[in-house]
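Dear support,

We are seeing what looks like truncated structure output for some complexes. This example has two components. We would appreciate it if you could run it in full and send us the complete token output so we can diff it against ours.
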Amino acid sequence: MKSIEQLFSFKGKVIIITGAAGAIGGAAGHLFASLGANVVISDLNGEGAKKVAAEITAESGVEALGIQTNATVEAELDTLVQTTLEKFGKISGLINNVGWGAATPIWESDTDKMVKSYLLNTVGAYNLTKRCMPYLEKEPNASVVFSGSLVGVTPSPEFIEYSTAKAGLMNLVRSMAVVSGPKVRFNTVLIGSVDNGDSTLAAGYDPEMLRRLSEAFVMKRRGFPMEIAYGMMFLMSNAAEWITGIDLRIDGGGTYKSKMPKKD
Amino acid sequence: MKLNHLFDLSGKVAVVTGGGNGIGKAVCMMLSRAGASVAVGDLKYEDAQHVADEIKAEGGKAIAVACNVTVDEELVNMVDETVKAFGKVNVLVNNAGGGGGGRENPSKISVDDFAWRFKLNVYSAWRLSQLCAPHMEKDGYGSIINITSMSSINRSPNMSAYAASKAAMNHMTANLAMDYGGGKIRVNAVGPGATKTAALASVLTPEIEAKMLAHTPIKRLGEVDDIAGAVLYFAAPISEWVSGETLFVNGGGVQTLD
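Here is the complete output from our reference environment:
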């Protein structure tokens, strides 16, 4: 049996994380670096990415790289991969965490919004994974983790662009997993509502809505970004060598509404 | 963030059924290495004793308890002995189970055989959860992990009773997660694919293994440590916002016996 240190050490690994200037991606960057990995912090917000990378290096003493990437522009994905290889020489893991969603009543979406969501949440992940594959295949226990969402599983008419794109992403991951062979593993973390600061407010929530949202979870609270990062880390670790094609729900036990609502 | 913090179970107490061999033994060793004191339960006391001795030889804390999980008094005794030795219970791994192997031709299996599988797999896990929950609630940290099976979602020949009992465990996991949700107790399940244990060896042939691997993206059968690693994730504080989940550890595929 391997020791716990052997199972969860990421020394010598190089991991690209997209959308990593945000709460969840940033938490993952800090976590993987603290366990020894060189992380590449990629984000549309280049300044934010560089800032997070600098914080990670200062905290962990492990070199991290911040880079601006628009996940919908293929040339920028090429640059992300090439820059990673020039800096660190390999790619051992990829976290496709970029995502975008907005509240839209179901019949008020349109082609542009639907396509924008699909490009950002689904196609971008496909394009980057495709570019990383030749390098991932060379590394032991290489794996790709995707940020999925519970709205991609449950009916979510309030987020129709986001939910359908996330549903597509889950199926994409399963397809990648069945043909990956033993070389590269593909898994999804299915994320419930996480306190990711400004991103949630930008999606149309106010504090009272967030309080009610917290109440709906079995655990009566929203998740912390690091709790999602922990799940990503487990799925990418040596402990998960025989796990591929699964969706790990990190969702506070799910949500529940009484079928016998109180009268007040 | 240091590793020993992320997976730290020191000061915690774990009960593992079927802990004398195979997956259960690997789980006992893993939880002990994370710092937990372990009550090793097994139908065969000598096997439980052997694992407890191994844990103690590594510097861990363990007791062995004879436990037939189909007998209510023995489940009560399992928890009593644990609390007597270590003062509390924080982690319960319902690993004891059986009756699989594709030997349940529906025209031949008896009503008693069917009921026995539910008693062994479902009832034992439910009853032990009921017995351990007050101790977990009292200590403020509880994680129940049910070992189910990939067969709970597959269509497998001659496995109607076993597979149904494992599917029942998955759903019981989700329901208990809700019942205990307001407190400090999480309930999750790990669903192993075909894992290299003595139990599997009793039905495995090279031909069957080759067929199994043909449908498994990660081209090997499971090792007991693969399952123990997933149990550790659910037992440790890093999964504090995860409950009601069934995680399949199966190499990405299906491994059927026919």
